[in-house]
Amino acid sequence: MITFCTLFSGSSGNASVLLTDEGAVLVDCGMSGKQIFQALEAVRISPADIKALLITHEHSDHVKGAGILSRKLDIPIYATEGTWAGMEAAVGSVPGSHRVMITPGESFFLPGMEIAPFSIPHDANEPVGYRFYLPGHSVAIATDLGYFSDAVRDAVTGAELVLLESNHDPDMLKENPRYPQRLKSRILGRKGHLSNQMGAEAAAQLVRTGTQHILLGHLSPENNTPEMAYASTHFALTQMGARVGRDVSLFVAGRLNPSYLYTIP
Ligand SMILES: [Zn+2]
Ligand SMILES: [Zn+2]
Q1: How far is the C-alpha of 19 from the C-alpha of 259, rounded, in Å?
Q2: Gyration radius of the chain over CA positions
Q3: In a domain, 74, yes or no
Q4: Is 194 helix (H, G, I), strand (E, B) or coil?
Q5: Centre of ligand 2 from the C-alpha of residue 45, in Å
Q6: Ligand nearest to the CA of 218
Q7: What CATH number is given to the structural domain containing 232?
Q8: Does position 250 have pLDDT exceeding 80, yes or no?
Q9: pLDDT digits (tens, 9 = 90+) for 30-68
């Protein structure tokens, strides 16, 4: 059986788990070790099953608890060279045997799965998304995207389940008085975050080419609501003739709580 869920998803912290009969991998660890362990308990996944920690990029909402988790569980961390350089201070002391360097575009293997990291347009050193190939199944994680590039589209097309960013509503962001202009420009830029509308268009493209489950994630707490994110993608999918709930499932990942557990028998 294959299980996928997010434990946390958003600017305050990200972590997702992919569990198979041969063990689990954790993608990103952007909350404290304690919070990650509590969330794992909530979804009844044993920390002992986690065999590796995969990092997308060095921003603190993705690496906060990475070092602690690696040390507590005695598991390796996989990240690109650029990400390693950017997260050294946050991760702290990790033995050489637990430092694995990966390259975008070059697949690697863990028990029961092939993992293909792919470059994403985001303002970090060398950020990646991940595509997982399991016997007969495929899952992809694509968040922290300035835009849905052709390269990202090609990397995730055909995955049956995609965790896709739906970060903000551009109008809410532009009108938010608490956000300085520089931050707004960063989020709206080509290396920032995917808006609800862009996420919806991406979802429609993916569903047209076979994706059956869309999980919207990395929502902004201030410039979005789960209802708005859901409505944007629901509209785009309905417009292209897909029946949400029948042809395709659509959920929004919780910012601070585990998402719906996708299980594939
Ligand atoms: Zn992020
Ligand atoms: Zn980021």
Answers
A1: 14
A2: 17
A3: yes
A4: coil
A5: 26
A6: 1
A7: 3.60.15.10
A8: yes
A9: 999 999 999 999 999 999 999 999 999 999 999 999 999
pLDDT at 177: 96
- For residue 190, the number of C-alpha atoms closer than 13 Å in the C-beta half-sphere is 1
Q: Which residue type occupies 25?
A: V
Closest ligand to residue 122's CA: 2
Q: Is 93 within the bounds of a domain?
A: yes
- The alpha carbon of 26 and the centre of ligand 1 are apart by a number of angstroms equal to 15
Residue-range definition of the domain harbouring residue 194: 2-260
Rounded to an integer, the average pLDDT of 111-125 is 97
Between the CA of 145 and the centroid of ligand 2 the distance, in Å, is 8
Kind and range of the H or E run holding 263: strand 262-264
Q: Is residue 265 part of a domain?
A: no
Q: In degrees, to the nearest 5, what angle opens at C-alpha 10 toward C-alphas 154 and 44?
A: 95
Among residues of the chain, what percentage have pLDDT more than 70? 100
| Counted domains in the chain | 1
pTM of the model: 0.97
User: Ligand 2 centre from 11 Cα, in Å?
Assistant: 8
- Alpha-carbon distance of 156 to 31, in angstroms, equals 26
**In the block, which residue shows the tokens 């303002």?**
123
Distance 123 CA to ligand 2 centre (A): 7
- What pLDDT, on a 0 to 100 scale, did the predictor assign at position 21? 94
Q: Identify whether the C-beta of residue 210 lies closer than 8 Å to the C-beta of residue 160.
A: yes
Question: Residues with beta carbon < 5 A to ion ligand 2?
Answer: 59, 144
Q: What is the pLDDT of residues 121-161, one digit of tens each?
A: 999 999 999 999 999 999 999 999 999 999 999 999 999 99
